[in-house]
Fold this sequence. Notes:
Strand 42 and strand 43 form a beta hairpin. The protein contains four helices and 68 strands. 4% of the residues lie in helices and 42% in strands. The N terminus and C terminus are likely disordered. By secondary structure, it is mainly β.
Amino acid sequence: MGSLKPGDCLSRFALTLACVLVGRGSAAQCTPQWLPGGGTPGVAGNINVLTPWDPDGAGPAAPLLAAAGDFTLAGGMAMNRVAAFDPVSGAWSPLGVGVDDMVFAITTMANGDLVVGGSFLNAGGASANRVARWNGTSWSAFGSGLGGTVSAVLAMPNGDLIVGGPFTTAGGVGANGLARWDGVGWSAMGAGTAGYVYGLTRLANGDVVAVLGGPATGGTNVIRWNGTAWSPLATNVGGAVTAVTTQANGDLVVSGYFLGVSGVAANHIARWNGVAWTPLGAGLGSNAPGLQALPNGDLVACGFFTTAGGAGANGVARWDGTAWSPFGAGLPGFGVAVTAMPSGELFVAGNSSTAQANDLLRWTGTEWVVQGRGINQQVHAFVVMPDGTLVAGGGFTVAGGVAANRVARWHGTGWSALGAGMNADVLSLVAMPNGDVVAGGWFTTAGGVGANYIARWNGSTWAPLAGGTNGPVEDLAVLPNGDLVAGGNFSTAGAGPASRVARWNGTAWSPLGSGIGVSVRCVAALANGDVLAGGSFTAAGGVPCNRVARWNGSTWSPLGSGTTGPVDCLLVQANGDVLVIRHGHQWQRLRAGAAARRRPRRGWRDPREQLDRAVERRDVVTARRRPRQRRVGALDAAAR
């Protein structure tokens, strides 16, 4: 069965997670069922923003927490950059198929719709240029959207939406960095700004405040819109202003990379009371990209600081109007976003400085409790073991805060490493009949010993399979007799030739005829012991085969007329049908034992498809995108 690979589509990811991969018995088949324990906890990627969201308004359901950023996995399910977290059940849920690129801003409209802004071009599989709305069931665009990234969004009481970012057009009309949607179309807001808009807020009188970064601001990093024009609200600001909020009494609070505002000394945070700027005590030790005003007038800040008011406060602190105080021992690393639920509960999103893994944390009143601790890089493959535990493989080095080099086991309550792991990505995993795990991928060592692209875990140690292969193993399947089939981009297995596909009988490797001349992306086993292979090839064993072929133990043959595009995944059903994921992320069903039936089904097209332009999966793996850092930090470097 094909393991998850970089660039594969959402449908395939979700299906992989919903399958129990059986490595023993008649075939490596996929029996859909929900796995106990919720799969992978937390978020794999970066959470940039948080906001409370109540889908049913005044209905009986409790409000949810909406999170968005640059993640593709939450709570063990595929969720593209935006997801909802239920504080009551602790479960994550997707918002349709999400969006196709990073989200930097989030808000809720007056009617309860959720709005996100970022660098994406599609939402829900349809065009939505950098800003989109989720109404609880589907995504929709705001006209033709923005001509550049949206980094800030603000919902107005009358239903209008104000957005900011490094764009110069909105809805096809000129708009420099700031624009307004009135429900029908986009319009510019005066001359706008040449600065980078980090945040937006509304004052009690209806005026809008934008906070900026970048050299183009000339130190005028806080500006105010009175309905007709922008004017400076702060001057001589020595660095980017990265966050803004309005307090219950109408005061304005800003934070950023500055030590003073309008000639007033203020360490990274300052307040405007309508007349003058003042510091908040001794301020913070560094930037706070997350600010949350509480109903009682207190303020919560989270960020990269370790002191607040001159005293220790790790990543999060509270201002009560006169002094700063820490929240217990603080965060394990730094915070990037903070929000308060209607119930008063506080949530923070951030990273662990020791594990570099994303966390969502809830304040209990005495401590911060991790709600979901994630995996710090991509997950390419899963397999469920006979004892019910889950093994995951990928490019990660941390799982659930535990060091785990490219492979880890989920035992129901947490993650554990499988020895010293691998020195490079794991692309495929299978469970052997005796309970051992076999991994294939890009690695050349496993458990600290040489293992060329394939290795076996016996429960305590890793061991190579003879000499392995001379190139990456991209997929694995177990035959009914317990033999193992490997497919990938290699030309030898063990000491002999084996072109892109080979068989391991427990002691030695053997080729499958003359093999296949082009990289094999996926393999699967049929109940009778035949082997299926898929990829971008057009011949197998010298026989014409369009991207999918069958080995009967002695010869290769085509599987019907094959497919019109490269095959990324093969799933064998109980009735013998073969489900295929084709290049372009579409389903196709082939009858394994008769003439092929083609039933293409429209599926979500991953906009990262440019990564799949390389015919060889090896190129795709090399080209895959690593999770990117949130704009605070990376973009601030240019803004300061």
